[in-house]
């Protein structure tokens, strides 16, 4: 399922697409909010691994502006709760993720991203979106 914790790890993997291929940009998405159990220790351990600017940008694309532009050094409870919400409770159910570089489209259906690379046929009926 596409949550921002997963999105923060995904880059375009089209052959030859090696620059400006992260983060993928959300397009025409439908989101659902689902409560998840708060785990402070997990968040404290995971926070240093995040690509912060990518996370904040993705959250904004989905309508959430609760995270600060810069990752704080002090991880207080209010910050961790906001981070928890953004990473684990916002679910992208439908839509797509698009590479900023090559514009490859990764569709999201029923919360599952299709990260497979299809050959470009040039036939719009094939769903290539090129």
Walkthrough of the structure:
The protein is built from four helices and five strands. Helices cover 26% and strands 21% of the residues. It has helices spanning 4-7, 40-46, 52-61, 77-89; strands spanning 2-3, 25-33, 90-98, 105-109, 112-113. The model is unreliable at 121-130 (pLDDT under 50). A hairpin with a 6-residue loop joins strand 3 and strand 4 (105-109). Strands 1, 2, 3, 4 and 5 form a five-stranded antiparallel beta sheet that branches. It is α+β, with helices and mostly antiparallel strands and 130 residues long. It has one domain (2-114): Single Sheet (N-terminal domain of TfIIb). The longest helix has 13 residues, at 77-89.
Radius of gyration: 16 Å
Query: How many distinct folded domains?
Result: 1
Low-confidence stretches: 121-130
CATH topology: N-terminal domain of TfIIb
Termini Cα gap:
25 Å
| Helix-and-strand structural type | alpha+beta
Oligomer: single chain
Query: Which whole number gives the mean pLDDT?
Result: 92
Number of helices: 4
The geometry reads as globular
